[in-house]
Amino acid sequence: MLMTRSAKVLMSATLALFAALVAFNNLTDYGANFAFVRHVLAMDTIFPGSSARWRAIDTPLLWHAAYLLIIALELLTAALLARGAWAMWRARHAGAREFTRARQWAMAGCLAGFMLWFGGFMVVGGEWFLMWQSHEWNGQASAFRFCITLLALAIFLNQPESEPEAGA
Questions:
Q1: Cα gap 14→2, rounded to integer Å
Q2: pLDDT tens digits, residue range 26-56?
Q3: Hey, which of 9, 57, 86, 166 has its CA 20 to 30 A from 20?
């Protein structure tokens, strides 16, 4: 049981590090992924003649606001997953109730990340702004990998806890 709890801690910590590095990269190389957000929102690389171009956002201030929101959600995801990893680490020898309570932070991190990468990239970017039509600015495959990883961790975290064995 200690191995399972340790796995939950380490997997949460690793995903926290991932989300933190994504945010760090977006902050330190702002222009690289800002171009991605700009093109998706401007819908300037979707199929020619699309009747959905009325959805496009052509306001630079809104492009920056959307990008900053993405970065904020990446940081929130990282912070919640890290807080969850730390709480579970501290509760690794505790009873099932206490460990279950500790893992809720990591579950919140999984939810925040899922909302960003599925809600933001797959739903809003992919379907509303038709990102799937762009050969250059389509981040759906990457976002899907992140979503599935977060979903797998959420399922793993939600497995019922048992009481630790004596001496564990």
A1: 18
A2: 999 999 999 999 999 999 999 999 999 999 9
A3: 57
C-alpha span between 132 and 126 (Å, rounded) = 5
- Are the CB atoms for 111 and 131 separated by under 8 Å? no
Tokens of 17: 């590090």
User: Positive or negative CA dihedral for 27, 34, 108, 13?
Assistant: negative
Exposure string of 150-167, with b = 16+ CB inside 10 Å and e = fewer, is beebbebbeeebeebeee
13-27 pLDDT tens trace = 999 999 999 999 999
* Angle subtended by helix axes 104-114 and 60-90, to nearest 10: 160
Residue ranges of the chain with pLDDT lower than 70? 163-168
